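Technical annex B. To support the medicinal chemistry partners, we prepared a structural model of the target in complex with histidyl-adenosine monophosphate, based solely on the information shown next.
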Amino acid sequence: MEDILPGEVEKWQWIEKKARALFSVKRFREIRTPLLEPTELFNRAIGETTDIVHKEMYTFQDRGERFMTLRPEMTASVARSVIQHGLLKTAPSLALYYMGPMFRAERPQAGRKRQFHQIGAELVNVPEKDPEGMGGDALILCCLHDFLELLNIRYVKFRVNDLSRINGAQADKVRGQLRDYFEGHKAKLDPDSLYRLDKNVLRIFDSKIPETRALVEEVPWQDIAPLSDEFQQLCAGVKKTAGLDLEIDRRLVRGLDYYTGVVFEAASAALGAQDALAGGGRYDNLYADMGGGAVPCTGFSIGVERLLMVLEKNEPSISRQMREHSVYFVPLCQHAGSPELPVVEEAAGNLADRGFEVEVARPSLKLGDHLKRASKAGFRYVVIAGSSEIEKQQWQVKNMDQNTQDPVAFGSLLNYLVTQKGMKSV
Ligand code: HAM
């Protein structure tokens, strides 16, 4: 588990700010749930035979001898919260988003942490097909795609699969056929997969053993669980509306049991072995299993650590993107009681509200030191206010890239900055 130190944390804030901006435009509302939940919630929602529940949860008994678990994901917590507070009694459907730490006791490696962070979205009580608009799955896929576009991340591969037959109404029959198939090749199965054959045949798909993977590769899908019409329409629909190419991968079953329809992962080659940047899918039975009635849902979660890894290698990199809108304010004055400081703080606050990265320097009269510091930290603009600027109600704005300086009236700073060459309006 890692600290996020000053210098690094600004990147997290930048990503979170972008996510909040997108979610508010798309009318998603934030939900925050406790880090700790009763273990039973995850056992039931994620599934006893999954790796997460079986091997990766941080579980302990609290002082009241109740089994408690640090949340390994948020979909189950959101469902618990929506049911507990009767949120669907006040609205026919919900669009929720969240961000925060999750915990899984996996073997740490690049892109795999024991405490990691997710940004996620859930559409609650939104069916696959919406007679009035885009179905929920298309909306959620497009939302994820839009977020990655907003961060200028390209070359993301969307892998999808259809679990509607495997986990839906015909699950018993289809799973029986899958069991028969693997029974027929029992001699080639590893011990973990033999256990899974009895408990939950789908979990054999998670195996990393080459012989087992070869068997998985050869499952006769067309006979056992052909792709549904709805799934094919979804793939064609998102291609048409968002230009989003989905790559069908029949082995993609995802490590959580609650999925009942489309499942997907967004993968980036920049990540190496752990290439999934985000994952999600449709889960129509979770609420019913938790006593919440029939509530069809779909959602996704993005791994923030992995997003940062991609953004560091991306062109433009996160630092470059943050620099585009970065402004260093310099109050040229002796101390905090001088009139320059509140004027500068108010202007910096206004720019921060508009999505700019701002920092206000400590009051001091040494302009040379301020400029050195701004240059080292990579700020694109320095806005200076000393006593003569206050008198004239005019900033001195220095462009650090071009080494130019302009006087700008107090009320025109935002306009001046957004109309600069290379500055995107926010
Ligand atoms: P998940 O695929 O388990 O799905 O996790 C989503 C993302 O979290 C992964 O694609 C990855 O980027 C990140 N992640 C997972 N484990 C780790 C780890 N140990 N270290 C770093 N990053 C990690 C879910 O959690 C579902 N709740 C997604 C969902 C939402 N399905 C429906 N709604």
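Notes passed to the chemistry partners:
Residues 325-418 form a domain with the Rossmann fold fold (CATH 3.40.50.800).
The mean pLDDT is 93.
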